[in-house]
Every structure is written in C-alpha cells, then in structure tokens.
C-alpha cells in the first residue's frame, strides 16, 4: 500500500512541476455553438482566430499543441461537412463536446 501511495505522490509532483502552456487560459474560456442535438462544436479556424495566430504560425505543430489542450479540457477532435455560402460542401476540422 505504501508503494502505491508513493507512486501517486510522484505523479502529483510531476503534474505540478509540468509547465503550463500559455494558450491554456484562452482555450479554457472558448465556447462553441450548440447544435440542436445538444453537442457544442467549434472549428479549428475559430480557435486559431481566438488565439490571434498569424497565418504563418498556423502550423501542424500549433495544431498538435491545440489538440493536446482541447482534449485535456473534454473536447473531441472531429471532421465535419459544412455547406459554404456558395452552396458547396467543405470539410471542416474542429472539436466537439457533449453539454
């Protein structure tokens, strides 16, 4: 029993020592649109806009960083089909969570 307690204490210390990503506070406050099915959704482009990232910084590395934070806060990565203003279907990446 003492060994398990020591492992839990070590895990708690490691989590406390882990540096906090500066994007975490902004991403924690994000709210998506609620659909009629009760699922809250937000597009990745909307997240990047909320973070005020210029186009040249919207890299795959930034997307991976966002994904890690969003999953930590209960969001699930999704791909959806969206009808554009011109009536064409476009695939949109984003995140969803049940509310």
Plain-language structure description:
The protein has one domain (22-98). It is elongated, with a radius of gyration of 18 Å. It is α+β, with helices and mostly antiparallel strands and 99 residues long. It is built from four helices and four strands; from the N terminus they run H-H-E-E-H-H-E-E. It has a four-stranded antiparallel β-sheet.
Strand order of the largest sheet: 1-2-4-3
* Poorly predicted ranges: none
- Average residue-wise pLDDT: 88
Largest sheet: 4 strands, antiparallel
Order of H and E elements: HHEEHHEE
**Amount of beta strand:** 25-35%
Structure classification: alpha+beta
Number of domains: 1
| Topology, number of strands | 4
Shape: elongated
The Rg value, from CA coordinates, equals 18 Å
Number of helices: 4
SSE layout and pairings?
Blueprint: H1 2-17, H2 24-29, E1 33-34, E2 39-43, H3 44-50, H4 60-72, E3 76-83, E4 89-98
């Amino acid at each position: 029993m003492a060994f398990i307690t020591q492992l839990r204490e070590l895990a708690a210390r490691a989590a406390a020592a882990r540096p906090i990503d500066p994007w975490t506070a902004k991403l924690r406050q994000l709210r998506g649109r609620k659909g009629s099915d009760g699922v809250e959704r937000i597009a990745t482009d909307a997240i990047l806009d909320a973070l005020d990232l210029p186009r040249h910084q919207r890299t795959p590395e930034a997307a991976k960083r966002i994904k890690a934070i969003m999953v930590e806060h209960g969001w699930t990565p999704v791909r959806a089909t969206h009808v554009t203003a011109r009536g064409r279907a476009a695939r949109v990446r984003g995140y969803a969570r049940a509310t």
